[in-house]
Amino acid sequence: MGQREVWRFMSRFNAFKRTNIVLHHLRMSKHTDATEDVLLEKKGCAGVITLNRPKLLNTLTLNMIRQIYPQLKKWEQDPETFLIIIKGAGGKAFCAGGDIRVISEAEKANQKIAPVFFREEYILNNAIGSCQKPYVALLHGITMGGGVGLSVHGQFRVATEKCVFAMPETAIGLFPDVGGGYFLPRLQGKLGYFLALTGFRLKGRDVYKGIATHFVDSEKLGMLEEDLLALKSPSKEDVAAVLENYHTECKIDRDKSFTLEEHMDKINSCFSANTVEQIIENLQQDGSSFALEQLKVINKMSPTSLKITLRQLMEGSSKTLQEVLTMEYRLSQACVF
């Protein structure tokens, strides 16, 4: 067998191997028993969604999306379901984002699942944003990317001292999707633009600054859930009252100021520009240690992603969530292919 024939054989073997890997992931995603990737349970007055991939930081798969969406719509119409709770298993993460490994392996094997994944993920994000029942996301641990999309558009977002929030997409050649173009430009000043372009991580009580609606001691999270489930035919106001009670009682970092508070003037000034080039120039001219540190971070990001992200947020600032998600779907397909 000549060198060329060996090369052709190895190419076919590698393609076959990649295809088998993808098919394995797809077969694994079809299981529906109680040990699977997402648990959908009716408990008391609530429908409870548990992201159940703790070893993989509860990263989101297409199969999980396809289970959550129809159940969410059923609970929304069910007169015996008064609220919906979503949480992550394992204690380390709510959801660290979409499982891009499966998507990447599928693309290598010429299995085009990316268009389907993004489309159905964004449809779920919109359903959460328009859900007529109180929707409570318990943000304990890592909450990034796709995990933000499962939570931030709902009525209530409860963070703990172990919550780590970020939209890190500019580091991997993408943009802060799942409705990032909607909620990020609506944060205080230019905070959302800063978070989107730098991927800066908010931790603990800092997540309460525009992302979370409530902040609760992680040790009380189980009790909070029990109290919510024990409510009898609760209204939105009843749910809010329980959350507010736990929020008020939480003493962790109560007197701690927002980590970025002292830098907000610089953030508002430097990130108010309409071009990435001007933002970079603003940071250079500012010259402070904080500005130079952000400049160093931005210079490590994908230049194309930075430009797309800035335009995305500028456009999204005047659009509805549904309009933003439509825009982001088109952007996602342009970035992936």
TrEMBL record:
SUPFAM superfamilies for this protein: ClpP/crotonase
Residue stretches making up the Enoyl-CoA hydratase/isomerase domain: 47-336
Residue intervals passing through the bilayer: none
CDD domains hit by this protein: crotonase-like
Annotated metabolic or biological route of this protein: Amino-acid degradation; L-valine degradation
Reactions accelerated catalytically: 3-hydroxy-2-methylpropanoyl-CoA + H2O = 3-hydroxy-2-methylpropanoate + CoA + H(+)
Gene3D superfamilies (alphabetical): 2-enoyl-CoA Hydratase, Chain A, domain 1 (3.90.226.10)
Enzyme class: hydrolase
GO CC aspect terms: mitochondrion
Keyword Mitochondrion set for record: yes
Source superkingdom: Eukaryota
E.C. no: 3.1.2.4
Keyword Hydrolase recorded: yes
Subcellular location: Mitochondrion
Keywords (A to Z) from UniProt: Branched-chain amino acid catabolism, Hydrolase, Mitochondrion
GO biological process annotation, one example: L-valine catabolic process
GO MF: 3-hydroxyisobutyryl-CoA hydrolase activity
NCBIfam families: PRK05617.1 (NF004127)
Function per UniProt: Hydrolyzes 3-hydroxyisobutyryl-CoA (HIBYL-CoA), a saline catabolite. Has high activity toward isobutyryl-CoA. Could be an isobutyryl-CoA dehydrogenase that functions in valine catabolism. Also hydrolyzes 3-hydroxypropanoyl-CoA.
Family membership: Belongs to the enoyl-CoA hydratase/isomerase family.
Name of the molecule in the record: 3-hydroxyisobutyryl-CoA hydrolase
Provenance organism: Aotus nancymaae
